[in-house]
Write a structure and sequence with these properties.
mainly alpha, two-stranded antiparallel sheet, 4 helices, disordered C terminus
């Protein structure tokens, strides 16, 4: 039976459990930090909320960068973390960049 972590990070030929858990933890902690920051920002201490939003977004981007690298893509794809859940969906839809040139499909 595969777990959510194994589905999240699938490297061709093997599943990296430890790496997948690290990525999943980074993304989830970042999303919690950012959502907490948004909730705090709507109340009185705006500076604290803004700091949590910035730190949460940075943590999400770090997790997305690790995921993109595991998929054989550039770490620059990690900046989809700025878009939160929508960025996660886009990142999960990326095809694996580790496919040999002869097997690649798509536009040329």
């Amino acid at each position: 039976m595969t777990t959510a972590v194994q589905i999240l990070v699938h490297v061709p030929g093997k599943i990296v459990d430890h790496f997948g858990k690290r990525v999943l933890k980074l993304i989830l902690h970042g999303m919690i930090l950012r959502e907490t920051g948004i909730a705090i920002f709507d109340t009185s201490p705006r500076l604290a909320g803004m700091l949590l939003i910035i730190v949460g977004t940075a943590v999400i981007i770090s997790g997305f960068r690790l995921y993109a690298k595991a998929r054989g893509r550039s770490a620059a794809w990690g900046f989809l973390g700025i878009y939160g859940s929508m960025g996660l969906i886009l990142l999960l839809l990326l095809k694996n960049g580790n496919v040999p040139a002869g097997e690649a499909s798509g536009f040329t």
